[in-house]
Design a protein that fits this description.
The structure is a homodimer. Chain A is mostly helical. The first copy, chain A, is built from five helices and no strands. Chains A and B meet through helix 3 of A and helix 3 of B.
């Protein structure tokens, strides 16, 4: 499982669109608050590998490309534990 | 905007994995409770068009293929209004 505290520092850039509280601030963008951590990791890996396209995937592909597997686990832990 | 009541009947099959209450019952699957409706529509369209691959996308592609645009709007309305 990831380290939510380490994820918090990596997640500052995420907050610009997905909200500091995990509620998205841009219409059509997903809320991440309380989301399943493994799902977030799967989504980030699919963006990084460019398997996930369509929708706003072009926004996320370069973001995910900057994250290591550990970063993904940590960011996922951070959003998933939000109440 | 979609019709949440109409979406409820279409969403019975969704509940098998994503939970009747929108909290996923399978590890790694996303919670849909309170998710942004436009995001859910975007995701379903990307699955139907097979632009979205990776992760468990192969599970969702055939599900989304069975939904019309109106069905997608309705199902999205149903999950997004869950508290």
């Amino acid at each position: 499982a990831g380290d939510a505290q380490a994820g918090k520092s990596k997640a500052a850039i995420c907050a610009a669109c997905h909200g500091a509280n995990g509620i998205a601030v841009i219409p059509g963008y997903p809320n991440l608050k309380g989301q399943n951590a493994q799902y977030i990791v799967n989504a980030l890996k699919s963006y990084k590998s460019k398997e996930r396209t369509g929708g706003n995937a072009l926004v996320m592909q370069p973001q995910a490309a900057m994250l290591s597997d550990t970063d993904m686990e940590n960011v996922a832990a951070y959003f998933s534990q939000m109440k």
